[in-house]
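Narrative progress, year one. The postdoctoral researcher (J.K.) led the effort to move from monomer predictions toward full complexes, under supervision of the PI. The following entry was the first complex the group processed end to end, covering 769 residues in total.
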Amino acid sequence: MSAQKLDLSLYGVLVAAGILVPLLAPAFTSQMAILWLMVLMAVTWDMTGGQMGYNSLGNIAFFGIGMYASAVVQIGIVYDVAEYTAAFGAIKVDFTVEQYWTGLLLGIGFGGVVATVFALIIGPFMLGLRGPYFAIGTLGLAVAVAELVSGWSYVGGGSGISMPVFPGEAASGSQVFYVLLFVLAILAHVVIRAIYKTRFGLAINAIRDDEDKAEAMGIHTTRYKVTAWMVPAFFMGMAGAVFGNMSGFIEPLEVAFPTATFGIFMVAMALLGGKGTVWGPVLGAILFHIVKEVTWTHLLGWQWVALGAIIIINIVYFQQGILGWAQDRWPSLFGVTVDEKTTRTGQAEAAK
Amino acid sequence: MRFLKMDLRAATVAAALTASLGLAAAPAEAKVEGDTIILGSAISLTGKYSTNGIHAQNGYELGVKVINDNGGVVVGGKSYKLKIVYYDDESTPARGAQLAERLISQDGVKYMLGPYSSGLTKAIAPVTEKYKIPMVEAEGASRSLFTQGYRYLFAVLSTSEQYLASSIELAAEIAKKNGKKPSDVKVAMAFENDPFSLDVRAGVVDDAKRFGMKIVIDDKLPRDLSDMTSTLTKVKALKPDLLVISGHSKGAATAARQIAELKISTPMIAMTHCEAAKIISKFGAGATEGILCPTQWAETLSYKDDLFGTAAEYDSLFKKSFEGYKNVPYQAAQATAAVMVWKDAFERANSFDSEALRDAIADTDMNTFYGGIKFSPAGNNIAKPMVLRQIQDGNLNVVAPLKWASSEARHPRQPKY
């Protein structure tokens, strides 16, 4: 079986699971929605972290920026944002059904666009840093953006924003946000996988393998790097907008810019599944999320220990992750052609 | 090919696992099991709000225990016991919202009690609102909770802007008594950056403006509430007449400790959550002498009901039931009051229907050991005042408003560091 067919069947499994699980176990819709969010985060992180070798710890900034951009748009089309977010609650809030849906759709689009523009502006500066400097720089970026937002009273500062309440039945609300996150996650994967198949994918791989050489070969590395950061930003921005509405209440430190949770999870998930592989982040996200939810339900108090243990075992014993290991073992299944002459076994055979 | 088979098999197993996980827990527990009514609450048992989360949980548990021991809740002629399902929200709003979702959609809870803090309440209220599940909360005071048009949110406590407003008034009175103008009073402020404290701040700023007072310091406490020396250094330099602080229990503990360490000599200091942070027993009567503490409730007030008796009787029952309390924090008392609201609503509605219960709660008009409870159309309690107490020789005495005052305010404060 070719790698392409394998991919198609995996998409089939994911879509089937995405449709069946909420139908069979409707009570788990919101946990499944978070699962898709995790998949989206890991997959988009892997574009820069895995394929381009730029380990960003700050992609969560795009998530929060998208969330806030969408909140401002959703509120702004009906009310004055500053009055709406005043700590003492200056206005009575009442959204009509139509205002809600227009706001939501505009907000999601706007969230994606604003996050992308942010990546475009900040990218050339941040992506001039390499290796650990880039990681720390982006971490600082995420923390700084969170602090700036939490001091900005126009968007409520630390008081946060209560999002418009979903009109209609509660169950349908969960389903709407589920479907949005599900579609976004699959779309992000399809788009990113398609990008990897192009010259662009080869270019960012070249940047990962040897950036100076890539530049010497005529690749305009900064332009490629910034573009490769804008794609995750776009999806993270939209996901943030959806998640904000799903949560119902957003505030800068824990909901919009959760650097220490989601911000680290996305890296841990990509590493667990195997960074730099097409399906690794997906697998990592699913495993990680299941462990997280199960320990949270049945081993309360130990959930962080369990997650910490996963990360430690992952980092110490199999850094290439689950699919990274599988890719080394069965390269042809991943569409990787190995020149047998250069491998150790190939050389041994040739010597005979 | 072999790999593919393995892969598909693994995928099937994974899918089956997920599904069985779902099915195992899916049959949602009924809201009423046999003769037990299940209430649900996500509460901060760990994280920065855990001190007060535990006070609130103790208050809920005492309410449940006393109600169950005294005939339970009578609905349709049958007596039911109360039980509360808790989850730890780790003091983070994102987790709180997820847990509320879990309580309602997976555990089948139809009657909610609130979490601790305005921030968590703001995170959970949209969820209960979405599912049309009534929530009686006792720990979310920010006014911004009551302007969202929430129909299912009811709060037994007074709103945040009232917490420190009376201390501004007191400062103005004292200034007049000393022959100064209230507008000469210099105010220093330090607030946590969260919905509750920002609303307390809004109340203080309004009142200070009304008297024309000058705000010389307007700082935010750091997010982990563990250090405020930078603010206190400024206080030493600028010598304000009044220092107001709000940062829940952790903020109060930090403030009391560092005020003693830096020997701050400001003549008047007011902070929220002194009792809950147990600052008197932690830092001594001498160091905390003269600090003003706003409170939702005090055991010396003349409130009473049939279940707990007077406020003083509740106070001694609470101290007997839980170890380590020199003063009963109002966070616990109001949590108990929230459970009483539920009992009252069940009995008046005589039904388990959440819509009928919502209407019954909205019509609440009762007197409790915690004070009167009557909800405005927005859901906040309008039948109960805030009072201001002062730490005097290690005791908390009510000094304002005058109607409830048991002693006179001491000014300037004379701490012994």
